[in-house]
């Protein structure tokens, strides 16, 4: 696409130079940008109209109305499992995004090395230095350290409305073994799990960890999706039948929900497929996937609260809380990213997008 | 309540969708919000008028007028006992709030792990890495480490106008044993003590630590209050007689002052009950209780200074400095929270509220 648009752009540039009546370059660049971001090519219009989710209304429907009688924790308690010797930004992005959207409490479970750094990013987070990596664990100690790590997380498990597994997790074998056990504990406690980043590396190599768990959400990017398709469907990605293939993949993994991130986000639970293509930004700075995982965690928690409380009287479609959480999370991130890009253009960073989460939410769903 | 409001909201959503003449969703949400926040139900109006403290005038009465002849420390020296392996934000919120309101010096006594992180949040705080947790202490060393920890705090004790015990304290048994000894030292030195967070867990299990100490303030939230009532009054919380039960509880603990946090803050010293219900915010992000404990510490110190200096000629009601401190602290936090919410709405975090403390204080009680 870059080459194609580059060529388009040069053609435009020449015509602008050759004809006095041609519109100014800035206007042409703006037009080209809008064409690319809004994707007003034939197949996108079709796709948008047929599968596009009513994302703003869904977000409004699942976001709780404020009630002064509620107390701390009732608007959501989420936990991020991630943060190791190399990565400390990703779990922070996911955890702080959850708070900025409206969760009451946000925890991070990371390695001892990562904890002081993640804590120093924000006093708002509760950071537990409990994970261990191979370099700090002797072979003899592995069993009892695994039990200790899993127990440290499990004593909190019942309190969490959602777990985000993967942001900045790294690929240390011992750490990933512990995280596999944590995922099993979360399933036993019926806690929803969002799998992103290195969590997808873990799960793609051991699909049984999430297979058949309807409260699991996978949020792969282009490459992570490719590996998932190859591993589970034993074939290559087929963009001619993107919707059908995504639905088959979700069904094959036993009805988990998959949010395939891209220019247009595609979401399926194996039963239906929805797309979210409004707004968005052409900037691809690292960390936006972490905002998405933290956002989906909050909206999924709210959708689940609403559906459990409403005992089936809820008039909303789709009715699967994981689908609702993905649609709302995708819509909010895309709007925040577009607002940040309007302001910062090429220098847009993930922290700029996080700063736009509140305004985006207020635009779509005013607090009062 | 979640069910009720979820259903209300969806009914509204449907009517808005089904009837052309239905008011816009934003208007309906606004109306619902105002009805809940203003609490225009009979019992709330009654409660407010009968027990509501004259909080703004009390805050103005106890806040000292600036005097160029005063020197560092005379406007207040507070200390927070808290901060452990998991929690570093809570003691920071309490200690920095005290400074933002006007204290001259704010100390934090925490574990060695927590100290560098808390120091990194702000260069304004004096952070002492003196507390120890079980995992870093051998059984043989416990006695002399306890003596050393208590001595480290005690050598500062006489300088403090108020101690805040509990924000981010954690529940490590050895650490809590040391804190019990610190509370005993503070009582011997006649230093006021505010007990919050995990400090309430400690005190609820050993009520003798504060029983009969008139300079102790407990600041329980919904769950902490429930445990306190069960333990001390051996019954359940009775919201039909919220005022009477709170007064009985405070009297039963020998005249300590209790600030029961909620939609309407209730305060009693066993003799009278006052409420503070002005302003406030529907956002329940974690950390607001820490701001309150730091604020009450400063106002209590000022009220006590004023009462001691005035030798009984002070015309102000109530006359108990712990009641005055609680009323002013509650009023200030509620105003700051409402200002922050006006600006940030759903994305309001505790740090946003702390940034509004100065403006709130200036609105109620201009510096000059």
Number of helices of chain A: 15
What's the quaternary structure here?
homodimer
- Describe the strand arrangement of the main beta sheet of chain A, using strand numbers: 3-2-1-4-5-6-7-8-9
What structural category do the secondary elements of chain A indicate? alpha/beta
Biggest pleated sheet of chain A: 9 strands, mixed
Roughly how much helix do the residues of chain A carry, as a percent range? Answer: 40-55%
- Beta content of chain A: 5-15%
Morphology of chain A: globular
Query: Topology as H/E string of chain A?
Result: HHHHEHEHEHEHEHEHHEEEHHHH
| Euclidean distance between termini CA atoms of chain A | 42 Å
How many β-strand stretches of chain A? 9
Keywords (chains A, B): ATP-binding, Lyase, NAD, NADP, Nucleotide-binding, Phosphoprotein
Pfam families (chains A, B): Carb_kinase (PF01256)
Binding site for ATP (chains A, B): 261-265, 280-289
Family (chains A, B): Belongs to the NnrD/CARKD family.
Write the layout of secondary structure elements.
2 copies of one chain form a homodimer.
Chain A lengths: L1 H17 L6 H14 L3 H10 L3 H8 L14 E5 L7 H13 L3 E7 L2 H8 L4 E6 L10 H16 L4 E4 L7 H16 L4 E3 L2 H7 L11 E3 L3 H11 L9 H11 L4 E4 L4 E4 L4 E4 L11 H23 L10 H24 L5 H6 L1 H8 L4
Parallel strand pairs in A: 1-2, 1-4, 2-3, 4-5, 5-6, 6-7
Antiparallel strand pairs in A: 7-8, 8-9
Helix pairs in contact in A: 1-2, 4-13, 5-12, 7-8, 12-13, 13-15
């Amino acid at each position: 696409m870059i080459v194609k648009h580059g060529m388009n752009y040069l053609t435009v540039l020449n015509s602008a130079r050759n004809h006095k009546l041609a519109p100014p370059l800035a206007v042409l660049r703006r037009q080209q940008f809008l064409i690319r971001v809004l994707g007003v090519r034939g197949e996108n219009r079709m796709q948008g109209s047929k599968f596009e989710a009513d994302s703003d209304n869904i977000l409004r429907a699942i976001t709780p109305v404020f009630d002064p009688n509620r107390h701390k924790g009732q608007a959501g308690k989420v936990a991020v499992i991630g943060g190791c010797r190399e990565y400390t930004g990703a779990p922070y992005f996911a955890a702080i995004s959850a708070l900025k959207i409206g969760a009451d409490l946000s925890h991070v479970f990371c390695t001892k090395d990562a904890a002081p750094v993640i804590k120093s990013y924000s006093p708002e987070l509760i950071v537990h230095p409990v994970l261990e990596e191979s370099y700090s664990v002797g072979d003899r100690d592995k069993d009892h350290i695994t039990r200790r790590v899993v127990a440290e997380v499990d004593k909190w498990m019942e309190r969490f409305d959602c777990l985000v597994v993967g942001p900045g997790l790294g690929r240390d074998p011992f750490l990933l073994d512990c995280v596999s056990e944590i995922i099993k504990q979360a399933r036993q406690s019926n806690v929803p799990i969002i799998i992103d980043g290195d969590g997808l590396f873990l799960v793609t190599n051991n699909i049984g960890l999430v297979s058949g768990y309807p409260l699991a959400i996978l949020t792969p990017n282009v490459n992570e999706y490719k590996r998932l398709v190859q591993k589970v469907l034993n074939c290559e990605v087929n963009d001619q039948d993107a919707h059908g293939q995504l639905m088959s993949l979700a069904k094959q993994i036993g009805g988990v929900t998959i949010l395939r991130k891209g220019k247009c986000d595609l979401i399926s639970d194996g039963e239906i497929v929805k797309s979210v293509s409004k707004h968005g930004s052409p900037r691809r700075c690292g960390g936006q996937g972490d905002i998405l995982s933290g956002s989906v965690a909050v909206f999924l928690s709210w959708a689940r609260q609403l559906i459990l409380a409403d005992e089936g009287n809820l008039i909303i479609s789709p009715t699967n809380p994981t689908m609702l959480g993905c649609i709302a999370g995708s819509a909010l991130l895309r709007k925040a990213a577009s607002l940040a890009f309007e302001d910062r253009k090429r220098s847009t960073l993930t922290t700029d997008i996080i700063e736009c989460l509140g305004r985006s939410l207020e635009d779509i769903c005013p607090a009062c």
